[in-house]
Amino acid sequence: MGPLLEVKGLSKVFTLGSFLSRVRIKAVDEVTFSIQSAEIFTLAGESGCGKTTTARMILGFETPTSGKILFRGEDVEGFRNRRKWFLQVQAVFQNPFETFNPLRRVESYFFETVHNFDLAATPPEAYSLIDEKLKAVGLSLQEISGKYPSEFSGGQLQRASIARALLANPSLLIADEPVSMVDASLRMSIVNLFRKLCDNFGVSVLYITHDLATAYYISDRIGIMFRGNLVEMGPTEKVLGDPKHPYTKLLLNSIPQPDPRMRYRTTIQLLEEQEEYLLEGCKFANRCPEKGKLCSEEMPAETFVDGRMVRCHLYGPDGDNLPERQGIKRR
Ligand SMILES: Nc1ncnc2c1ncn2[C@@H]1O[C@H](COP(=O)(O)OP(=O)(O)O)[C@@H](O)[C@H]1O
Ligand SMILES: [Mg+2]
């Protein structure tokens, strides 16, 4: 069977600044990956590398500048607005308190979804479907009945939003930083839930995170992004257990992250980000401890090293940018 989701050469260009100082950044640059059935694929990277933009294009909230998205081998542009798509692909967002209106009881969202998608023929059927999905995430209809969002903890409310996403039996969940607003002590139990949904119900998950610890724990394969590019991708134990790209190595030694609760990043961070996006060659070159002469000139091509894809001149066809080869003439 082919992959469930294929993203092929997906790009998004944003134009920033005013008329006179306009810059175009490729927030997502020719990104290609696929997700199999019953697989957890993680997109990881520090904030501002294009993860959310990629997810938003898959979900249809953002129009790609170029590239294709295929679902079960079919271009999604053909059936974006059809029920089939809504039933198959569901999203879980970062902040569950934004998913639910504070003035509405949480269970009303469940009944609304069941009604909108015609998921049950009778009220008792609706109750049992909702209860079943809530139980799959460790809650129950009885537990949530009559309660408003403020009466839940962040972790409980995120579980509820996952249960709601499961109502239509989707085959793909897209979860963008689903635990960054959840108490650190509860994060693992929520990411474990994705693993359980994948193993027990065959749901695939596109897990988006800047946190490699949770990614290591639950994902089958991982793609590391840096300024719009996938720089390394492969089985999680290979990429995180024995990283090849200097950026993956750096990320594993933990890059401090801005607090996700801070909506706006500082101007300095954003300027640095923009400058890196505009670099020629490898966007990581300026920060790379293993930078060679080619790095600021040419974007490295995808190469395959030890069971994973890596985009780095260290692993170029001739390996001629390895520091020890610098200055040695090509044969
Ligand atoms: N609607 C937009 N308009 C202009 N720039 C955007 C927009 N959305 C995202 N960007 C920029 O694109 C880059 C990638 O952002 P994003 O996809 O949110 O990254 P991540 O989710 O990895 O933090 C950032 O530099 C961000 O500022
Ligand atoms: Mg994001």
UniProtKB/TrEMBL annotation:
Keywords: ATP-binding, Nucleotide-binding, Transport. It comes from Thermatribacter velox. This is ABC transporter ATP-binding protein. The keyword ATP-binding applies. SUPFAM superfamilies: P-loop containing nucleoside triphosphate hydrolases. Residues 5-252 form the ABC transporter domain. NCBIfam families: oligo_HPY. Signal peptide: none annotated. Transmembrane segments: none annotated. CDD domains: ABC_NikE_OppD_transporters. Gene3D superfamilies: P-loop containing nucleotide triphosphate hydrolases (3.40.50.300). PANTHER family: ABC-TYPE DIPEPTIDE/OLIGOPEPTIDE TRANSPORT SYSTEM, ATPASE COMPONENT, OLIGOPEPTIDE ABC TRANSPORTER, ATP-BINDING PROTEIN. PROSITE patterns: ABC_TRANSPORTER_1, ABC_TRANSPORTER_2. One of its GO terms (molecular function) is ATP binding.
